Amino acid sequence: MSQNVVTNLPGTERTTRARHPERNEGTALHGDWIDDIRVNLSAVERRVTSLAGRRTVKKEWQAAWLLKAVTCIDLTTLSGDDTPGRVHRLCAKAKQPVRPDILDALGAGKLGITTGAVCVYHEMIAPAVETLRGTSIPIAAVSTGFPAGLSPFETRLDEIRRSVEAGATEIDIVISRRHVLNANWGALYDEVKAFREACGDAHLKAILATGQLGSISKVAKASMVSMMAGADFVKTSTGMENINATLPVSLVMIRTIRDYYERTGNLVGFKPAGGISSAKLALQYLILMKEELGDRWLQPDLFRFGASSLLGDIERQLEHFVTGRYSAANRHPMG
User: Does domain 2-331 have CATH number 1.10.8.50?
Assistant: First the structure.
């Protein structure tokens, strides 16, 4: 059993090592690329509806895929009552996301599995840096007036720079939704490009807040414009909207990433966030990524879940595979 789990781990050779690929340098703003975008919503919905029935993984293969999912989680705390102690505990969980006895039973104890990153507010970067020192786990900071993105522009730029100086290696920015709603693609491009420049060497993840953009075609166009402006990731949601990550919206964003890659050769990552709390749903996202973009996008440098409770359910499923019994959630705390 142990050997099978490790053998069937997707992309085993890059499971925990690759954190950041080469940067997406962006392009000029191409209006014709935006105009070319068409979305057949009914076809998108049929595609995702068929996903669970056509593609399933069982037994040791499922355990292997769930280990892969762990390596792609941005373990997140974005609460008004966050404390340094909570962040220390969260970072400790990021370093050891699955109990050692479970990993040993799966034959994965020596793989060095960690989560993909830790995501916090600016004020919590310092305790994250302290706990994660000596590891390769990235620290992502939400920025630019998260979650609404309505702070003064210079304030948003300064927030990015301060977070990078404090030790963040990834910046999750929020775009101005009004630019998308008004189809003001030039303004969106200039905004994201300025954010990208403020990030310096830190990678930029552009949060679109897809549930607030009005239509699925505008989601696709906002994704393309953000990538042209230099976003290294496009992300569905802040996790705080009424509608967060969904499979149809994710499929449209993924295909826009593929279109951008085919046009430029630049790799851009994808991060669904909000509402992904079950191992079963996480598997559907991984399968969608594999089928639409291939194994290269199953690595933590190009795919992340924005989640907190997801890890607990994955750990419970892994323990069930090992023991044949489901344990209580309190046996798998976040810290």
Answer: no
